[in-house]
Amino acid sequence: MMLLMMMMMMVVVVVVMMMMRMMMMVVVVVVVVMMMMMLLLLMMVMMMMIIIMMMMRRRRRTRRTTTKTTKTTMMMMMMMMMMMMMMMMMMMMMMMMMMMMMMMMMMMMMMMMMMMMMMMMMMMMMMMMMMMTVMLNVVFKCSKLMIK
């Protein structure tokens, strides 16, 4: 965890140094915010993992007969993890887009890049919605099966 944090901080510092020379403080701020979001997501994932481990241990210690419940819980946790991963990917894409925008700024192609950004954002939102629906459907189906 600490190592990850350190790595993120280092990247942020490097980016800031680079931007200071280019005089683009706004972009720097945005990038830093993105980094912070990434860190938060990482923390969430780690917490989820810890919780899963704890649950499994407790279940194993107390009851060995109830396997269905554990399976359902595991499925749910897996879905959550998938969602987290998707979020991380989204953040990474956003970062990449920001970098691209900075590059384009130097070439004076602001309008073009803004349009591209808007398009990308829309696409990402659509993807996220699709993934959410699929996950929900899968979870519901699994729960129904387990109940039967």
Automatic annotation (TrEMBL):
It comes from the Eukaryota. This is Uncharacterized protein. It comes from Dreissena polymorpha.
